[in-house]
Amino acid sequence: MTTIKDSVHDHISVDGVAADLLDTGPVQRLRRIAQLGTVKLVYPSANHTRFEHSLGVYHLADRALSSLGVGGVEAERVRAAALLHDIGHAPFSHNVEELLHRHTGLYHDDVSDLLVDTEVGDVLLAHDLDPERVAGLIAGEGQYGQLVSGELDVDRMDYLVRDAHHTGVPYGTIDHERLIRELTFADGELVLDEGNVQTAESLLMARALMTPTVYAHPVARISKGMLRRATERLIATPDIDAGQVRRMDDYDLICALRMTPETEEFARRYDRRDLYKRAVWAEYDDTPDRLREADHDTVRDLESDIAGRADVSPSEVVVDVPPEPSMTESTSEVLVNGEVRRLGDHSPLVTGLRTAQERQWRMGVYTVADATDRVGKAATDVLGLDIDGTLVSDVRRRVHATLDEFEGGE
């Protein structure tokens, strides 16, 4: 058994298959992948990694299994899946995941190729565990896969508390001990036991508050958009493809960006935190449906059109259209009077949070500091936004003044 001191859960005891997996290359690689990607450019203390998060998920999964009375080989499979659930992450966590998916067809939880006929797979087989079944649990398959990847999963419980701890933002603080203790199965579905509607709501609230404050902070979104653009240019070069980038760590990717002429300017800006500025920051109702639904190629064409009208390089315009507002946590299930109910159908809080989420949604256009006025006016025309250029310019000045002082982080 190995005992590890953790900043969130105090001491974590690791034994069995998890102890043997710890020192494999793919697990150790997670030490070099930031949990929150470019969010550390906003919150300087957010330097925690996917490695420590994976340990936390393993710890909570072990606690949940004990509470649920699950043991034997099934429990070992779940523990292995919990520790390994993030080994498919690309550099900077989720920041370039959609880009790489377009090229590889793989998301971070598609890990069969990393578990079968590999160093990790050999460890699993030595413990009589089928790598394919462990990969299925990581993807959320089956009854026990819900513990690793579902609406009440231990992954979410750890990252909310851990991200709150390391950013200093208190909104992710949840009663994860009660959540673990109150988990149960009803007809094969992972639910919270009777009397836990508020417990489920607390998880929903934490995620709803952490998203605009941390995960979708404006500076984090700008840096993420710039990183995606630079990585896209990197894999368009002949020497590096998307599959190689997927297996890099943060340091590998930054070094590759520094050493590639097409991307060295981004690396310089990233190193100095010299980020693009917001030229447009448009609300949901001001953004046309066709733009919210635009695919990658359409967005690139729009960026080129905006750049041409504003007389800047296409590489200096980033159109950032976030996904439609969604609240998957509202599908969490809880027992009420002996009946399994979806939280979204039972809790009036969900309606209010959905409304707040839509009002917080913003479409952004980013560019170099000295071109924000020109790009803002061009973007308003090209994108068909329901705002005028003067308003864009005024809003831009106000938000930059706020960011220069303080906006939740740097």
Features:
single chain; 410 residues; mainly alpha; Hypothetical protein af1432; two-stranded antiparallel ribbon; 22 helices; 9 strands
SSE-based structural type: mainly alpha
Mean pLDDT: 92
Q: What shape does the CA trace take?
A: globular
Uncertain stretches: 389-407
The CATH architecture of the largest domain would be Orthogonal Bundle
- Cα separation of the termini: 41 Å
What is the helix tally?
A: 22
Q: What is the strand arrangement across the widest sheet?
A: 5-9-6
Output the radius of gyration. 22 Å
Tell me the count of domains. 2
What's the main sheet like?
3 strands, antiparallel
Strand content: 5-15%
In the CATH hierarchy, the third-tier topology of the largest domain is known as Hypothetical protein af1432
Q: Tell me, what is the CATH class of the largest domain?
A: Mainly Alpha
Total number of β-strand segments? 9
CATH homologous superfamily designation of the largest domain: Hypothetical protein af1432
Helix content: 40-55%
Kindly describe this structure.
It is built from 22 helices and 9 strands. The strands form 4 sheets. A 3-stranded antiparallel β-sheet has the order 5-9-6, with helices on both faces. It is globular and about 65 Å long. A hairpin with a 2-residue loop joins strand 3 and strand 4. 54% of the residues lie in helices and 10% in strands. By secondary structure, the protein is mainly alpha-helical. Helix 3 runs antiparallel to helix 4, helix 12 (197-215) packs parallel to helix 20 and helix 15 crosses helix 16. It has 2 domains: 2-216, Orthogonal Bundle (Hypothetical protein af1432), CATH 1.10.3210.10; 276-322 and 361-410, no CATH class.
